[in-house]
Amino acid sequence: MRKKIRVIQYGVGPIGASLVRLMREKQAIEVIGAIDSDPAKAGRDLGEVAGASDAPWGIEISAENDILDEAVDVVVHSTSSHLPAVMDQLSACLAAESCVVSTCEELSYPFRKYPDLAAKLDADAKSWGVALVGTGVNPGFIMDKLVLTLGAAAQRVDSLSVTRIVDASKRRLPLQRKVGAGLSAEEFKQQVAAGTIKHHGLPESIAMVADGFGFELEEITETIEPMIAREAFRTEFLEVAAGRAAGVHQIGRGVSGGREKIYMELQMYVGAPESSDRIELRGEPNLVLTIPGGTHGDIATAALVVNTIPDILAAPAGLRTSRDLPLCFFPPTAKP
Predict the structure, then answer these.
(1) Alpha-carbon gap, residue 104 to 135, rounded angstroms
(2) Torsion angles phi and psi, residue 222, rounded to 5
(3) Distance of alpha carbon 88 from alpha carbon 99, whole angstroms
(4) Cα separation of 160 and 261, whole Å?
(5) Nearest-angstrom CA–CA distance, 261 and 255
């Protein structure tokens, strides 16, 4: 039998905690360590911090990157949405000759927004003989990989639209804050201008889909407006008064030849009456895919990241995207 896949978790926030709990269910994976800069977590048992029912695990969280010196096959990385902020972290993982699966949204398809950073990561990964990818439910799947997969049944795709509606009241507190739930309309606009309120990844999804369908886009635009609560709503974590922001309404467009080729709309707010995901491809033939109830972001993100581990180990060295990888289910009983 081959040895188990040795994994380190980098970042033990709510998403990182869900990732390690899921990885512990896979017989082929051995979680050997974790890294988190939070002094309140460093030195503590990973299972206890992750809220695992079978804690303690006997795995100590480290505040430093020294643990990367261990023989590690994959680093699962979940610390920030912004690519520039995590470049040093990713570089350290690659230099340790480890493959990387990251939840960094801007890493999902960085070639248009950060061509220089993308080129550096690709070159570094190839020089160390490993691969890395940014993935998750969105970006990484619903509004890009799944769109391209549906396109496999089309002879021609002329244009497309994707609409994702998410009830943020069922999501974790950091996400509810990230979409501005509870802010006044003015506070919402100020924080959008400061770059602190938004869902990251819509332009990346548009760029990935455009390249996959061969659309040569002249521009990608994005608008962000608040969804205003019509009545008061309380979540597990916070309260939204009537007339205040309940979340975000983002629209991204990809334009080619003066014509809108790609339309992507995201409504993510607390109190959304019904979550759903809908993809519509217009071409030959027209294709429509609807997921009633939507795809639960936190659950699916953990699943997608962990299910990608075998794929990134088998991928050619370099910077990869979910467009490149098969992304299949990774059974708990799969052998190493």
Answers:
(1) 7
(2) -150, 135
(3) 15
(4) 6
(5) 6
**Residue ranges with strand state E in the chain:** 5-10, 29-35, 61-62, 74-77, 99-102, 131-134, 156-167, 219-228, 233-234, 239-240, 245-256, 259-269, 276-284, 287-292, 318-320
Instruction: Name every residue whose Cβ is closer than 8 Å to that of residue 143 and which is 6 or more positions away in sequence.
Output: 162, 164, 201, 202, 205, 209, 264, 266
**47 CB-near residues (< 8 Å, 6+ apart):** 20, 54, 55, 56, 57, 59
The helix/strand/coil state of 74 is strand
The structure tokens listed for 134 are 């940014």
Q: Which residues pair with 219 in a beta bridge?
A: 255
CA angle 82, 125, 84 (to 5 degrees): 15
Model pLDDT for residues 26-67, shown as the tens digit of each residue: 999 999 999 999 999 999 999 999 999 999 999 999 999 999
Determine if the pTM surpasses 0.90.
Answer: yes
Which amino acid belongs to residue 4?
K
Q: Which residues contact 282 (CB under 8 A, 6 or more apart)?
A: 157, 158, 159, 160
Tokens matching residue 227 = 């969804």
Distances (CA, A) of 88 to 46, 91, 114, 200: 23, 5, 15, 20
Output the CA angle 214-219-224, nearest 5 degrees: 120
